[in-house]
Structure formats: C-alpha cells, structure tokens
C-alpha cells in the first residue's frame, strides 16, 4: 500500500470557531466545528486520501499537559502506520508554538507533522482557515518533508523557531531570525530552508501522570520587578523557573537575587528574553541561559529536563 494517507487530527481553536455574524472576527466561540466540518469547507481536498479524527475540542488558551501527552501518543501511533505519509493538526493560535515545540522535542518525527490554525473563525466573511488547511495538507504530502512544522498564511515555519508575533493579523506567525522552511504557492510547496531534524526524547519521558509533571513557571523582568513573585512560587512548591529577562536576559537586582535564592533551594532557573527573537548569551557568573529559546519554549525544555530526573 502506498504511503499517501494524510491523517488530520482536530483539537479545536479559532479555525473551528463560530460567531453570530460574519462581520464578527473577535467575538466568536472557539472549538465549535468538528474536523470533518473543516474538511468539507475545502472541496479541493476531496481528491486527497484523508483520514480525520477529533482528538479534543479546546480553545488553545486552555491547552494542558494531559492533552499534550495524549496528542503525542496519538501522533506516534499514526506515524507508525506504513500507509501514513504525514499528519496535519488543527490547533488554536494562542499556544500553537508551545504544542508544536513540545511534539518536536518528544517525537522529532521522520515524517511531517504539520500544525495549522486560523486567526478568523470559520463563520467570518473571509475565513483564513480553509486556505491554511489546504496548504497544510500539501506540506504533509511533500516528499522528503520531516519534523514538526507550522503551515500558516502561505509560509512554513520550523517548530523550534516559530512564534506568534501579532494578536490580530492573519499572518500572525514569524520564524525567529527569518528562518523559514518553505512557502506554499498555489498548492505548490517551495523549499527555502531546511526541514527540522533532531532526536526526540521519546514518549517514555512524558509517561508520568500529567498532574505529577514538574511545575515550571515563567516570571517577567520589567521596571520595578522585585522578588515577591519568585518567593510566592517557592512557597507553592515550584520546581523550575524561566526568567523572561529584558534584552539579553537582563534582570533587576531584586529579581535576580530572588532567583538565586530559588536556585540555592534546588529550583532549576534559566534566563530567556522577552524580546521577540534573539539568543541570550551564556556568560560567566550569570544565571544559566536558555539560548535562543523564547520563554514558553524554554519552559517546555525545562519540564522535559526535569522529567528526565525522575
């Protein structure tokens, strides 16, 4: 049997959202339509060999670790089927970059796993979801494609690089440092970078019941930042803290002092930046750097590292 089947997994989001009027682009309710409804809105996909499954129905602002765990296991199960060429996952935009990064770090799949989404609900006057879904299927069917990517607004982003950078525009995502993988033009995938590769940590790493995963929180440096939030997290039993610093991961004296107190008590601490792109340099005498990872991806990396410690 040829490997030409594309599996579509629905998780909800704006792409499956509905509003009372076609002119309402923000007052909608996410996660209302099933993935089969989304496919029905894209007639050209009828010629493709597709299989659709509704995994969950979530507004992605409510994404959780239990859903991540279930999604990773489901994706792995379908990837192991020889007839499957790739997987498309419909998702909300709010936490899409987190879920995509999590899946890539856990699975680093040899077949393409393509996330897509929408900034407008399905009932909008001009919805963007159908085109994004069409493009995502083309990417998932591309020979030689690998890894977890995001197909959105005609561009294909590496899961390790992609960030949501705009709250409203239909081209809401960017790749850090402009590192695009490909563009989708009239259904044709034009490669302009490289497909993501790597070695996943594996499903065994995330097998622990989600309620027992390490607690990792993000704190933000800003004018007037002090250590009270850090000390509150210590009292709550935090296991790791990502500091979203200013600029090159800089921290106020008071916040850094509190973070060093946390580190001395066994809490893992790393510095990221609240800037949209760019690495945090690792320098002697400073708290550990998260490298080029933004705060939310650094949080995932720290969770996976702490899970490795049992």
UniProtKB/TrEMBL annotation:
Residues 6-192 form the L-asparaginase N-terminal domain. SMART domains: Asparaginase. It is an enzyme of class 3 (hydrolase). Signal peptide: none annotated. The keyword Hydrolase applies. Pfam families: Asparaginase, Asparaginase_C. Residues 215-306 form the Asparaginase/glutaminase C-terminal domain. PROSITE patterns: ASN_GLN_ASE_1, ASN_GLN_ASE_2, ASN_GLN_ASE_3. Its EC number is 3.5.1.1. Keywords: Hydrolase. The active site is at residues 14, 93. GO terms for molecular function: asparaginase activity. The keyword Manganese does not apply. Belongs to the asparaginase 1 family. This is L-asparaginase. It comes from Pelomonas aquatica.
